[in-house]
Design goal:
globular; mainly alpha; 13 helices; 53% helix; 395 residues; disordered C terminus; 3-stranded antiparallel β-sheet; single chain
Length: 395
């Protein structure tokens, strides 16, 4: 593989097709914020605004401004979303709603803590870009609120009956691992971050990770971390696993912990081997750890974010350890993604394929897909590939 040539392919896709698509199609110039429900050609098919996608898009443009190039249009785009989110996005206790109508009126209560996590990341990243103290203050207060809700994320909106089958989810400690690094620069008290990082790493690797399965489960028993023999308790999401593993590789770099990095790479190779569809290629969306029938009918779909996050994990693992198995898997993922998810006629990538790799939905954005995984994945992979140097080529 000519890594320099591949890096340029990712850079070109990011800057010439994907970012211009969102710059042109997503801003709501009348009411503020962004449209995320965009059809294949970028036309708006629904005007509701989902807070976690608003936060992700703010973060995306602020991050590119901070780390890639200080383009004024990127900063303006981030501020455009942040001002809408600041005005309409949260209640009086820094809990962010799940969704708003186009004008900013709340539609769904703040039951989903991930509205908080991505809003926190958005305001933290934008605070770095602008030096705006108000943005930094919102990020810090939202972070503290996340920690308050951590043990009972849904709070009054929890629909399960307490005391019968108490489960806790993998997604929150996974996101906090990444969020902690995002907000580190604006935190006055770094001690709380160090404690939070340590707790989340221990929870992921000692509770959710099951060595006998070679992966993390999506849900475990809240009381003791045991495997729950039910649909939710047996569920594996390979994409979540691999996304978390590259987050933890980054923490390994921050902590100068080579053993943590090696362990993450070892687990990531087990996960992708399990998750890869040997018949049609690509990675399954959900799997049952005991091979039993899946409850979720979308289990065998091939999703954009799963493959991009897996590709990041593989090329990062190769960069940090030199393990050529990671490079082999990256090459396989690179081929699959560009052959199946990329739309040759219109910008941005498809999000949803069936098991055979055929386009299931032609949309470019919706309730779950926004300006995040595709541009972040392209940026991450480009940055890692270019770091190998112009003389670094792998056969």
């Amino acid at each position: 593989m000519n890594l320099k040539k591949i890096a340029e392919r990712y850079r070109s896709e990011l800057l010439e097709r994907v970012i211009p698509f969102w710059l042109e199609k997503s801003p709501d110039m009348e009411y503020g914020g962004y449209f995320s429900c965009l059809d294949r050609d970028g036309s708006v098919y629904d005007t509701d605004k989902f807070i976690w996608l608003q936060g992700r898009e703010i973060w995306m443009f602020a991050m590119l401004y901070n780390q890639l190039e200080q383009r004024q249009e990127w900063l303006d785009m981030a501020v455009h979303g942040a001002e809408f989110l600041k005005k309409h996005g949260y209640d009086g206790n820094y809990d962010f709603y799940f969704s708003l109508d186009r004008t900013g009126k709340p539609l769904v209560h703040p039951y989903n803590i991930f509205s908080n996590t991505f809003s926190c990341m958005a305001f933290a990243q934008l605070a770095k870009a602008t030096g705006n103290c108000e943005y930094a203050d919102i990020a810090r207060k939202t972070f503290r609120r996340i920690l308050e809700r951590r043990q009972n994320p849904k709070g009054q909106w929890e629909k399960t009956v307490s005391g019968t089958r108490a489960l806790k989810g993998f997604a929150l400690p996974m996101i906090i691992c990444n969020m902690a690094l995002e907000i580190e620069d604006i935190m006055d008290d770094k001690t709380i971050l160090d404690i939070t990082i340590k707790e989340c790493l221990e929870e992921i690797l000692d509770v959710f990770y099951k060595p006998e399965l070679g992966c993390m489960l999506e849900n475990v028993c809240a009381l003791d971390g045991a495997v729950a023999d039910c649909f939710e308790g047996r569920e594996i999401n390979p994409g979540h696993n691999l996304e978390a593993l590259w987050f933890m590789m980054n923490l390994g770099v921050r902590l100068n912990d080579g053993k943590l990095i090696e362990k993450c790479v070892e687990i990531s190779l087990d996960v992708i081997e399990r998750g890869w569809d040997k018949e049609y290629g690509g990675i399954f969306y959900f799997m049952d750890s005991m091979g039993k029938p899946m409850q979720k009918l979308e289990w065998d779909q091939k999703l954009w974010w799963v493959h991009l996050e897996s590709a990041i994990a593989m090329i990062k693992g190769y960069k940090l350890t030199g393990n050529v198995k990671c490079l082999d898997w990256f090459e396989k993922l690179d081929s699959y993604m560009w052959s199946n998810f990329r739309d040759d006629e219109y910008p941005e990538w498809y999000g949803y394929l069936n098991r055979r790799g055929e386009v299931l939905l032609p949309l470019k954005g919706g309730k779950w897909k926004g300006c995040f995984h595709v541009p972040r994945g392209l940026y991450q992979i480009y940055t890692i590939l270019k770091s190998f140097g112009s003389d670094k080529q792998e056969a």
